[in-house]
Amino acid sequence: MRGALLIAGRELASYARTPSGYVVAAVVLGLDGLLFNGFALGAEARPSAEVLSLFFYVGGVGTMVAGILLSMRLLAEEHAQGTDVLLLTSPVREHEIVLGKFLASFAFLAVLALLTFHLATLVFVHGKVSLGHLAAGYLGMLLLGASTLALGTFASALTPHPFSTVLLTAALVGALDPAAYLIGQVADPPVGPVLGYLALHSTHFGSFQRGLVRLSDVVFHASVVYLALLAATRVLEARRWR
């Protein structure tokens, strides 16, 4: 665990030293602001709880975009810069490398999510919403971001270039949501319900969006994170001994 924390600290510091971290932050926060004003607030009056629910809906989309973009900073960047050999020959286990990279990107994503808090407080100040709704919504955003980043870590272990990592991560996330959800709505049982259940946002974020925390949704996102990071570790182990 010590090795993972050292790698996470080094990676997190690099976000502040390189332009890519600021570019991702600007894109995601700008997208969240535009969607909040254009979609959540809209032109017509809505109840405060509905506005907050729509805010978390678009915030979830922004969090997934952030996870996809941040995937370029994971394992593939080490390969592109030629530092992967040094990393793989260091006295650090593969699972520590994967976990350290994931923790750094998740910490950065959590900061981006918290930077949108002023938008949610606008609804809180000018309307009547519960603190529990705020807490549940942000918990869901963090879990959704963790699932996306874990898939991005796996994609980053498979591909040698940051740009191809972004494309593969987008394909994996798109296959789970919205593709799996839409196919699940029209496919016959048992295929339809199974595919619909795999939807990251459409199926396992809606309860958080409405201010509810369901254990099944928490377990689902935790399972996605575990399986994706485990798969990334196995790929890295194969690369080390190749």
Radius of gyration: 18 Å
Determine the structural class based on helices, strands and strand pairing: mainly alpha
Largest beta-sheet characterization = none
Shape: globular
Q: What is the H/E order?
A: HHHHHHHHHHHH
Textual characterization of the structure:
By secondary structure, the protein is mostly helical. It has helices at residues 2-17, 19-41, 48-70, 75-81, 84-88, 94-114, 117-126, 131-158, 162-186, 191-197, 206-209, 215-240. Helix 2 runs antiparallel to helix 3 (48-70) and helix 3 runs antiparallel to helix 7.
Task: Summarize the entry for a quick read.
With 242 residues, this protein is mainly alpha-helical.
Layout of SSEs?
Elements: H1 2-17, H2 19-41, H3 48-70, H4 75-81, H5 84-88, H6 94-114, H7 117-126, H8 131-158, H9 162-186, H10 191-197, H11 206-209, H12 215-240
Helix pairs in contact: 1-2, 1-6, 2-3, 3-6, 3-7, 3-8, 3-9, 6-8, 6-12, 8-9, 8-12, 9-10
Could you list some keywords that capture this structure?
single chain; mainly alpha; about 80% helix; globular
